[in-house]
Every structure is written in structure tokens, then in C-alpha cells.
Amino acid sequence: METFLAVARHSSIRRAAAQLHITEAAASAAVAHIEKQLGAKLIAKSGRGIALTEAGRVYADYCRSILGLMKEAHAAVREAETGRLRIGVVATAGEYVLLRLLSTFRNRYPEIELGLSIQPRDVLFLELTHHETDLVIAGRPPRDGGLITRARRPSQLVVVGAPGRWPDPFEATWLLRGSGSGTRDTTLALFDRLQIRPPTLTLGTHGAALAAAREGLGVTLIHSDAIESDLADEQLEIVPVEGTPLNRPWHAVTTRTPTPAARLFLTHIVDPDRVGDRAFRAA
Questions:
Q1: Could you say which of 67, 171, 244, 249 would form a disulfide bridge with 152 (CB–CB 3.0 to 4.6 Å)?
Q2: d(C-alpha 104, C-alpha 106), whole Å
Q3: So what's the pLDDT on residue 205?
Q4: What's the rounded Cα separation, in Å, for the pair 92 and 13?
Q5: SS3 assignment for 92-137
Q6: pTM, two decimal places
Q7: Which positions ≥6 away from 168 have C-beta within 8 Å?
């Protein structure tokens, strides 16, 4: 299954074999063996590479979940204090919320092996659904994914720009995150609610959007956690916009069966004596 997922990810037998440090013949034989067992064609030629068939896409989803569950099972039977914790986090929360939580957690449980995945919100929840991460800190999870919010931390989305640069924010260029960002989706929903269509510039990351806002290129919708120092240094100011600020709390999310290490982390982050003003509240 790992070989098949590598082939699916790279759309190439050769690149998958190189990643796994096996021969192309071995990678091809592994896929052929699975196809024979299933009685279904999983890959097909596409241009110079290969592509998954519909059966291949379905099987790839199962492979991700099965392999994720196997790793989760290995972690679950170990002592929580010496286990492994895989955390997924969106970039803003990763930089401005999670670091203090991780620092105090690491000091408290130094034997736990930590792994971090920083991805757009949609990717993180897909990884969690496939048991490829143990816990996600991001915006609200999808309603139909079987995921559960265990704790929340208040946060607001505000519009910011260079001080004095944009008295009318609707004349400004709005600086957007990349596709898959929850903040981007919220910004576009705000446009619809206000019935406006201002010029936009997609910069990908929240860091790039903030840097562009500081330079006066436009305004951006951002979590208040990310701009505390910029406001204090007067590099940015909050720009009044109808409908803002928006309450968008951070969610700590797991599957229905969190691992022991994930449960330890959840207990840690709702304890203000341990983590101070970055503490979450149990859901």
C-alpha cells in the first residue's frame, strides 16, 4: 500500500521507486500484485506519466486511512508519556498560538516524539480524517467528517493595513491567502455579504500578506493573534470594515478516538497555569 500511494502521489513508477529506494521493477510488481488481488485496474497511462483510475482513487483513500490507523494503533498501545504526537496546524496558529503550547508541553513530557504538519485548513482535516495526524489546530472542522472539536480558544478576524494608508478600505487591493485557506474563504464570503468586488492580490501565505500590508500594497483579513506586535509597533492598524471583527475561534480537533498522547496534549492546553493566556477552553 505504501508503494501504491507513492506511485499515486508522484504519478510515476520511476519517481516512486526513487523515493522508496527500491527498483522500478519492484514498484511496478507491487502495483500489479495489488491489481491482481483486487481484480481491478488502478493506474493507467496518461501522457508521459500515469494517472489513477476511479478504482485507484477509491483504493488510495482506503490505503491512506488503513496506514494511518496502523500508525495510530502503534502509538495507542505505547505509554502516553513516551508515545508520539502528530499535530497539524494552519500557519497562523502555528506561529502565534502553538509554539508556546509546544514549548511547555515538551518541557513537561520530554519523551513524547512530536511531529508537525503545517498545511492549509482543508489539507489538515483530510490528513486527520485519514489518521495521518492525531490532532489539528485550525478553524472549525467540516460538519460531515466525523471529527470532533475538543477545545477552543477565542480569536477574531480583523482587517489591517498600513497606518493612514487606506481611509476607504474598499478602494484598497485586498491581499488574499492561497487556495484552501479558511481566511481566504471568509474574505470572499465577506465580499458577498457586503456586495463588493474590490481588486485582489493572492500572495499565498499569511506572512506574505502581512508584509505586503505593511508596505501599503493593500489590506488583509487576519487573525488578531498574528498582529499584536505590528499594532504595538504601529506598522499596521485595524481598518474599520462593516461586519468585522469576526469571531473565529481556534479549534483543537481529533477523530472520535484520540490517541493517548493527543489526550495528554488536550489536557495540557486547557490548563492556564501551564500555558498562560494561550490556554484553550474545553469544548
A1: 249
A2: 5
A3: 83
A4: 36
A5: HHHHHHHHHHHHHHHHHCCCCEEEEEECCHHHHHHHHHCCCCCEEE
A6: 0.70
A7: none
195: region left, alpha or beta (phi > 0 left; psi from -120 to 50 alpha): left
- Residues 198, 166 contacting (CB under 8 angstroms): no
Q: Please report, for residues 65, 68, 119, 222, 274, the alpha-carbon distance to residue 214 in angstroms, rounded to integers and kept in the order given.
A: 42, 41, 24, 13, 34
Strand pairing partners for 254?
148
Determine the 3-state secondary structure of 79 from DSSP. coil
> What is the number of other CB atoms lying within 10 angstroms of the CB of residue 64?
19
User: What are the tens digits of pLDDT across the range 232-280?
Assistant: 999 999 999 999 999 999 999 999 888 888 999 999 999 999 998 889 9
Euclidean distance between the first and the last CA atom of the chain, given in angstroms as a whole number: 36
pLDDT at 78 over 70: no
At residue 222, the 3 state secondary structure works out as strand
Distances (CA, A) of 120 to 117, 127, 137, 186, 263: 10, 11, 11, 14, 24
d(CA 232, CA 86): 34
Q: What is the pLDDT of residues 30-59, one digit of tens each?
A: 889 898 888 899 989 888 788 999 999 899
pLDDT value for 98? 92
Q: For 258, which DSSP code? A: -
Round to whole Å and give the CA distance between 112 and 87. 12
Residue 49's H or E segment, with its range, is strand 49-52
